[in-house]
Amino acid sequence: MSISTSVQHYVALKRGLGYHFADQEQMLRKYAAFADAVGEEYLTAARMIEWASRASSVQRSREWLRVVRHFAISMHAEDDRHEIPPHDVFGCVKRRRPRPHILAVSEIEQIMKAALSLPPIASLTPYTYHYLIGLLATTGLRVSEAIALLPTDLTTDGLMIRETKFHKTRLVPIETSTRKALMAYLALRRRFGGDDPHLFVLSTGEPPDRSSVTRTFSKLARQVGVRRVQGNGPRLHDLRHSFAVRSLEQCGQGRAAIDRHMLALSTYLGHACLSDTYWYLETTPVLTRQIANAAEGCRAGGAA
After folding, report:
1. C-alpha 186: how far from its chain's center?
2. Among 189, 240, 241, 268, which one carries the catalytic annotation?
3. Is the peptide bond between 100 and the residue preceding it cis, with omega within 30 degrees of 0?
4. Among 18, 224, 229, 232, which is disulfide-ready with 167 (CB 3.0 to 4.6 Å)?
């Protein structure tokens, strides 16, 4: 079996498990072409390192080797004649998730209000961004999930989120106020939105893409002073972080109540692993203080 054929099977396996695996597939296909060109039957560490070293930077070489190494681990499990390269050939850098910025309700309201002044004035675009940002803030949806919504996804039970990050479908209950806001937007959408099937569309008649929504949010955040003109600050994805943190802050006391709340929130957010939800506990000052206070209470002999 050629390396290219093995890559096809590996990609199919990953897709079957729910991964998009688009970038990784491209990398692996390039490696397979490189390996097949020299007639390689089994994966060798030297060949993988040689291929990864051709990347444009050390960071890219590290990423290329990481992807092909995972492929090698899978192949080695089936046939130990396939070699696994060391993981630290191009250095070892721990990937750190950016610390979330928790937006105040007043800050989100300022950003939504500023969206109504976006050009073209008197078109659907300002309202699309206004209601889209509001939906992200009140539901914690991923932006990719929100811009993929269809009007028919607004059901009596909530929003039907289809083909999510892990190719799963879930139902997201929404507040009455959120439903009313979406109905108000749909009334405008029917008048000015055109024939595109998506729920959120711009004055061009097409839905916004993820990059344009991200750029627009950053622009609005700077405009109202929530984000600095230069440097880091709140990002679009922080609307999701803010939703998750506020939900956790309302969690009841006691281990059982926390476990139930975490599981429900993880399902609501569409997390593949519960550990992704627990991450919010260690990255949010308010929650960290609550944990510290509870631990101090236990140490002093108080209730947990």
Report:
1. 26
2. 240
3. no
4. 18
- Distance (Å, whole) CA 219 – CA 47: 46
Whether the Cβ atoms of residue 239 and residue 102 lie closer than 8 Å to each other: no
Active site residue 19: no
The average confidence (pLDDT) of the chain is 87
Neighbours of 83 (CB within 10 A): 15
Residue of 165, 219, 246, 261 with catalytic role: 165
Catalytic, 190? Answer: no
* Per-residue pLDDT, 180: 97
Over range 158-177, report the average pLDDT: 85
Q: Quick one: pLDDT at residue 252?
A: 64
The one catalytic residue among 127, 129, 185, 280: 280
Closest residue by Cα to residue 144 from 199, 209, 217, 235: 209
Walk across the sheet containing 158-161 and list its strands: 154-155, 158-161, 170-172
Q: Answer yes or no: 70 catalytic.
A: no
Q: Cβ(134)–Cβ(181) under 8 Å?
A: yes
Q: Does 289 qualify as catalytic in the annotation? A: no
Residue of 162, 237, 246, 261 marked active site: 237
Q: Is the peptide bond before 197 cis (omega within 30 degrees of 0)?
A: no
Q: Kindly report, residue by residue over 33-62, the tens digit of the pLDDT.
A: 999 999 999 999 999 999 999 999 898 999
Question: Kind and range of the H or E element at 170?
Answer: strand 170-172
pLDDT of residue 272 exceeding 70:
no
Label residue 3 exposed, middle or buried (CB < 10 Å: 0-12, 13-18, 19+): buried
pLDDT single digits (tens) 207-253: 999 999 999 999 999 999 999 877 678 999 999 988 888 887 777 66
pTM higher than the cut 0.85 = no
* 237 included as an active-site residue: yes
Residue 81 appears among annotated catalytic residues: no
The angle formed by the CA atoms of residues 38, 42 and 46, to the nearest 5 degrees, is 70
